[in-house]
Design goal:
alpha/beta; AB_hydrolase_fold (chains A, B); Chlorophyllase-1 (chains A, B); chlorophyllase activity (chains A, B); Chlorophyllase-like (chains A, B)
């Protein structure tokens, strides 16, 4: 009955403009590890306030970026009828990529029992409709998790607050994976474990649909001292190349690697990572709209919005060029 | 009338097994620059002996490899009714990539007037049916030429034996381009001019069909001292990713970067570049068969052989995995 309710919600929103805020008022919730639901890491959650059952999106933040630095983007997505869960993988001291993927797997395992406990009353997660997304290194984390690459390295240290032994998360737990300017390392020859890229077209060993959003400035250095944030050979292009159909691709050619962050953080990051020149709200709306359109298509709602963007990319606020959708 | 003859020849060979030698006896011809036809560089040509008009394939050799080190492969191709022209871009001292592309363009310009003069009597080139192929760095040369990237750098030195001023070769001169384990440099950040890779899917600005053959061992080092011949990020995978449809892709997963050379040279190169363990004649037949199937499809013959390989890659003597054909 609850799932049926969710389906009504999704189809009811099919007339919305995905590039504008959706019809649902949303609520942001920060869940600390001390919470009774015992989340494995701190979570930033954005959910509709209206009663209903909504699909869930697990969103992985980028390297050294906060999980709540994407609040505009995540609110945009949630306003179209999705519950977005953004884990905080670490504080000021980053962890290894392998540990990050394990933490994301732990959050995935927590969702079926824990998420309901922290949501507003009568707002239910449709855990069977679970999608993954991530930005920058978090994009790789999302793909690694979708691929079930949560392998455990042998360790001498005893497990501490975060469990070191994690069940291998089966790819089938997720219905879709979305990379927002995903990055797999600093070059093809310098990539942290797990090595998910193999440099073979369509080699990703998973059957769920994929969406990849790239940025045109991500592969450019910022002056002489700052290397590119999303270097050639380890960025959006290769993630798309290695994805099996159905897979769609969008290049926000006039924007930079961090231009979908909230304005204050995007400004701060513009001293580290090359930023675009256009108004960033157009970028946030574009990324939000693409994510919503992909979720609506891949989670069993309507294909209409995704097909509309593919057929006429000028409907997006930012210039998207190229746009590719390989259906089979 | 001559062109009609060629069409008859092509369609007559459609029942052949592309992975075995074709029905035409072939002749090899070495044309030196002193020849009356005045080729811009020395050429190794393989052509059918039987009278007729045949499509032409310009084949670009790999870095520091001889243009006649592929004689088995080129004879295989020619035996199916093609005239193969393999320029020798340099002797013992390599030239720049830019100069190599210019020389390839010069050979292209020479073909309409010069080729007929050096072929056996009553063997005619169908210059309107001209395709490009190349191995390793020569694969990049082929793509650069197809893309019209024959730009001339400003030079202080006076033009010498090779003309430095070359008409920009229009992409439309060619009907197809085939990369045999093409390589664009040593890494995405270390690529010689012209920079044809842009790390954007389907960005190659040309409308002709593409075939890319990769090798499974090309991205592996040989011991500690020899880096990979076809490194990740600059190899077959990215060339395919940047090609617009129609484009087909084949990975000879059990073979190395130089395993399609003649046996003696392949043996020699196995001390420099990681070789596969299987019999190399299977690799040569597989590459030859794919090239023939692609030419038959792309030059207006029959699609049957290419479709047959795509639908059942086990028809090839070597293991091809994956095989991808994006038609549109």
């Amino acid at each position: 009955m609850a799932v049926l309710e969710a389906k009504i919600v999704v189809s009811a929103s099919s007339d919305d403009d995905v590039f504008e805020k959706g019809k649902f008022k949303v609520k942001t919730i920060t869940v600390r590890t001390s919470n009774a639901s015992k989340p494995p890491v701190e979570l930033f959650i954005v959910a509709p306030q209206e009663k209903g059952t909504y699909p869930v999106l697990l969103f992985c933040h980028g390297f050294m970026l906060g999980n709540n630095w994407y609040s505009y983007l995540l609110r945009h997505i949630a306003s179209h009828g999705y519950i977005v869960v953004a884990p905080k993988f670490y504080g000021y001291i980053p962890i290894s990529m392998t540990a990050e993927v394990r933490r994301a797997a732990q959050v995935t395992d927590w969702l079926p029992t824990g998420l309901l406990l922290v949501l507003p009353e009568k707002v239910n997660p449709d855990i069977d409709n679970l999608a993954l997304a991530g930005h920058s290194r978090g994009g790789k984390t999302a793909f690694a998790l979708a691929l079930g690459r949560t392998e455990q390295k042998s360790r001498k240290k005893k497990a501490r607050s975060i469990r070191d032994v994690v069940d291998v998360t089966q790819p089938s737990k997720f219905k879709a994976v979305i990379g927002v300017d995903p990055v797999a390392g600093s070059s093809p020859s310098d990539r942290p474990q797990p090595h998910i890229l193999e440099y073979i077209p369509r080699c990703f060993n998973m059957s769920i649909p994929v969406a990849v959003i790239g940025t045109g400035y991500g592969n450019q250095p910022l002056g002489l001292l700052r290397p590119p944030s999303a270097p050639n050979g380890v960025n959006h292009s290769e993630f798309f190349n290695e994805s099996k159909p159905p897979a769609c691709y969008f290049l926000a050619k006039d924007y930079g690697h961090c231009d979908m962050l909230d304005e204050w953080y995007a400004n701060m990051m513009s001293f580290i990572s090359k930023s675009g020149t256009g108004p960033r709200d157009l970028m946030r709306k574009s990324v939000g709209g693409i994510v919503v359109a992909a979720l609506k298509s891949y989670l069993g709602g309507s294909d209409d919005d995704l097909n509309a963007i593919v057929h006429d990319p000028t409907t997006a606020p930012a210039t998207l060029d190229p746009v590719i959708y390989v259906k089979e």
